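User: Hi! Is it possible to get a structure for several chains at once, not just one? Here's what I have:
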Amino acid sequence: MLTLYHAPTSVCSQKVRIGLAVIGLEYDSRVLNLQKGEQFDPAYLQLNRDAVVPTLVDGDLVVTESSLILEYLDREHNGAALMPADRADKTNAQSWLLRCLAIHAAINTLSFATAMRESILASQTPAQIDVLAAKFPDPVMGAKRKDLLLNGLGSIYVGQALVHLHRTLADLHAALAQAPWLGGQALDLRDIALVAYIDRLERLGMAGLWTTRFPRVGPWLAAWRETPAYPTAIAAHVPAGSAEMMRAGGSKHWPQLRHRWEALTG
Ligand SMILES: N[C@@H](CCC(=O)N[C@@H](CS)C(=O)NCC(=O)O)C(=O)O
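Assistant: Yes, the chains can be modeled jointly so their relative placement is included. Here is the combined structure:
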C-alpha cells in the first residue's frame, strides 16, 4: 500500500495527488497541518529531513521530491505510460520535472509574499516568525520565509520569481501551439507536474501573468479543471474559507506585482 504524507493546499501535495488520481492509485492518506508545524515532528523528519511535504512511502522505500514521486509512481505502478518514449520528448519531460524546483520556489515566493503573509501576520508576532524560521532544517529556507513575511513584495525573492514564472508561462504557451496538452493529444507527466502551480497562480488572482501574453495557458488550465482528477486531487481538499482568503490576499497585490513584472520582462 502506498502512503502519502501531504497537506491539503500545498501545491507539491496537489501535484502528487493529481498524479495518483490520473493513474488511479489508492493510497493511505496522512495529512500534516503545516500551520501547526507538524512537518517538524521528529518522526516526520526521519522521512523528510527538509520538513516539507509531500513524502511517499511504498513498502520500505521512502520517496521525497514531488517530481521524483510522480516519475516513481508512473514507472513502478503505471508501466511508465505517462512518460514519453520518444528520446527528445522524454528529455523534454525530464527537463520540466527538474524545472519544477525553480517553479515551486517562485510559487512559494508569490504565495508567502501576498496572501499567506496577510494571514500569518494577522496571527503571529515578529518574535513568533523568528521562532518559525529557526525551525527549518535548511537555514536558507528559514531565512527566505522570514524575508517574505517581513518584506512582502519588497522581498529580494520576488523579482526572481517573476522572471522564472515568465519563462515557464512562455514555454508552456509555446509548447501548447501544436496540441492541447504538453503530452500531445493526451496529458502526460509534464501536464501533471505543472497544473498545481498554474492553478495556484489563478487562485491568487494572478492569471494576468498569462491572459494577454500567453493565451494558450488559460484553456489548458480550464481543460484540466474539467478532468475527473482535478476535483479529487485539488478542489476537494481546499478548506472552507481558504479559497476566498487566497484570492483576496493575492488579488490585492496584483496591480503592484504586474507593474514589477512588466518592468522586469518588457
Ligand atoms: N521541492 C520540494 C518542495 C516541497 C515543499 O517545499 N513543500 C511545501 C509545501 S508545497 C512545504 O512542505 N512547506 C513547509 C512549510 O511551509 O513549512 C517538492 O517538490 O517536493
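The first strand starts at residue 2 and ends at 6. The radius of gyration is 18 Å.

User: Great, thank you!
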